[in-house]
Amino acid sequence: MFSVGDRIVHPMHGAGVIQKIEEKKILGEVRAYYVLKLPCNDMDVMLPVDSEESVGIRSIVDKSVIGEVLETLKAPSSVMDSNWNRRCRSNMELLRTGDILRVAEVVRNLTRVDRVKKLSAGEKKMLGTARQILISEIILVCDLTKEAAVELVESSI
After folding, report:
1. Fewest Cβ atoms closer than 10 Å to its Cβ: which of 11, 13, 139, 145?
2. Could you tell me if 4 and 18 are in contact, meaning their C-beta atoms sit under 8 angstroms apart?
3. Does the model's pTM come out above 0.85?
């Protein structure tokens, strides 16, 4: 179990700081929730404490991993399926792993595709989500502003 002040990552929401742990009655059931403050969009997210393992909530990575993230962003693009539907499913599977290197791979690949030809609406939304997840963790790990983290990611791709 995490504590107030811990910096954690939710695979589909990104990184944030636990502001408090509170009990809420939702649909007649009382459960404990982490109240997570996300740095990217100044939003609070409530995550059930008892779902941390099944969802893949984890602590933020060590600062030494950010070098690997930047190398992943600089690396050549992965071979992706030409069918947008299969490509979308594959990228979603990578995001769900919660692994920052896989998220960086999705951001790199979709950004490069978008620079050559416009992404579909679904892939554009996925790119936005993946960027938010990646940038939010970089902000917390490196203690950067959102603008600095965005610039770091953009300049590495």
Report:
1. 145
2. yes
3. yes
